[in-house]
Amino acid sequence: MWWSILALADPVADRCVESGSLDAAGHADLVVLRRRSFAEPDAVLVDAERFADRWPDCPAGWMLAAAIERARAREDEALAHLDRAAGVAPDWPEVARAHAAAHARSGDPSHLAQAYALAPDDAELEVLRILSLPVSERADPWRALIQRHPDDSTAVRAALEGLVEAGHPLEARELGLLAVDQNGDGALAEVVAGLRSPYEPPPPPRERRPAEYRVLEDGTTEIVVYSPGRAREALTSRLAEIGYGHAEPIRGGTRYHSDTPVRPYVDILDDGTVHVQESGAVSLAGPPPPGIKLGNTGARLWGPILSVSEVISARKLRPDRVRVMEEIWLEVTEWRQAMTRQTFAGALGEALPDRLQALWDDGEPFYGEERLETPAARRAALLAHWATRACTDEGDAAAAIVARFLLLEVDASETPLLAEEIARAEAEAACGRTLRDAPPR
Question: What is the pLDDT of residues 78-101, one digit of tens each?
Fold first, then answer.
């Protein structure tokens, strides 16, 4: 789908205001929801449904929800929201176009005729209508499509590929060369080059980053889940595995005591600090085992269990302390990394959408002081920022927010992304990213 569902949602919202099914305040709420959707798609989905409940005669809320799900490549969910929008306004051209296209892509072309009647100049609906025909009947409609929409490079590309599929590769090549001469589209030129060289090896798969997995002693691979909660659970489980089964709350965290005599306690604080006892009283759960000689001992109540402790020097405790740190270093590292990523993601979700909006609306650059005056310059800056994010979890998170902004905001504007701009950015993008396959979160 080369037009954005959200590009159709904007005129739908305006039509809602004109029809009286949405007031100015509701329209303003919708603008805020759209802006939040770049960084908080899950939360905005919930709010979009509430919006639709509040304004039941306006399909714009369902269109917004469908746009978010479409950007996340969740086609079934997007289709369900478009069904609701079509139920509210079946004869609105924008709703009918999005609804029919989504159904056609899911294998049901029955809605195309009505939508095409409401929007006869829509190139994508024409492409979908042709694709619903038997392959043997598509050649003439593909030729006609190229004549009707010579400047729509995406439609022309679909027609060329269709002619090849229909058994006319030489004709597709000639028509493609003429089209490239006419509009100079870079992505179209790549398609024509592919007609000349029908086989191109697939791009190499993106390598995993070392921090994402580890190979265990038995040769199996363990995937590291970078969730602070799960990472904390993994750390707690690891402590239990090495004999630290007794926990007690302390200020700012939890203290873990060993089931084995004369071992240092481990403090796990909620801010990510981990402290292994250096010296002092080492607690022993229950009475000391036979043969254990205690030094300066004392008794205290530890929960319901009577326990004793031994005051031990730093020198004597050091070997056990080092051993404990070595046994938990991986889980501690993963937990701290997860907390760092969570903090980064929160800051990113708050700051980056504002910077993206300021660049697109007002031309405020990411770097330097020279204002970007034209839509083309602003699109180039946004695409460059997306393409240059690092091959890390943090870089992926930033790239995903920028991609959603490009798909939901820029593509919905009067000056959307051009095919050649997308092709150029994807060719330069780190890690083999593609804009249309942006991470969902």
Answer: 899 999 999 999 999 889 988 988
User: pTM of the prediction?
Assistant: 0.46
Alpha-carbon separation of residue 209 from 147, 206, 214, 329, 386 (angstroms): 48, 9, 10, 19, 20
Structural tokens at position 388? 């240059």
pLDDT of res. 227: 67
In this structure, the number of other CB atoms found within 10 A of the CB of residue 347 comes to 10
Please compute, for residue 296, the number of CA atoms within 13 A of its CA located in the half-sphere on the CB side. 5
The confidence band for 25, taking pLDDT boundaries of 50, 70 and 90, is very high
Q: Which residues sit opposite 282 in a β-bridge?
A: 310
Contact in structure between 98 and 8 (CB atoms under 8 Å): yes
How far apart, in Å, are the Cα atoms of 41 and each of 7, 35, 46, 441? 17, 10, 9, 7
Bigger pLDDT: 14 vs 304: 14
Rounded Cα distance between 211 and 69, Å, is 30
**93 vs 336, residue with greater confidence:** 93
Could you give the angle at which helices 419-428 and 375-387 cross, rounded to 10 degrees?
A: 30
Rounded to whole angstroms, the Cα distance separating 93 from 11 reads 10
Which 3 state secondary structure label does DSSP give 291? coil
Ramachandran category for residue 213: left, alpha or beta (phi over 0 → left; psi -120 to 50 → alpha): beta
Q: Supply the DSSP string of 90-119, one letter for each residue.
A: TT-HHHHHHHHHHHHHTT-GGGHHHHHHH-
- DSSP per-residue string spanning 5-62: HHHHHHHHHHHHHHHTSS-HHHHHHHHHHHHHTTT-HHHHHHHHHHHHHHSTT-THHH
Distance CA 124, CA 235 (A): 53
Question: Which tens digit of pLDDT belongs to each residue from 125-182?
Answer: 888 888 888 888 888 989 888 888 887 878 888 888 888 887 788 888 888 788 777 7
**Integer angstrom CA distances of residue 206 from 5, 89, 391, 431, 432:** 30, 44, 10, 6, 7
- Picking from 22-36, 132-146, 346-360, which range would have the lowest pLDDT averaged per residue? 346-360
Q: Is the dihedral of CA 333, 339, 343, 344 positive or negative?
A: positive
User: What's 440's DSSP letter?
Assistant: -
**Gap between the Cα atoms of 112 and 132, Å rounded:** 9
164 Cβ partners below 8 Å, 6+ apart? 172, 195
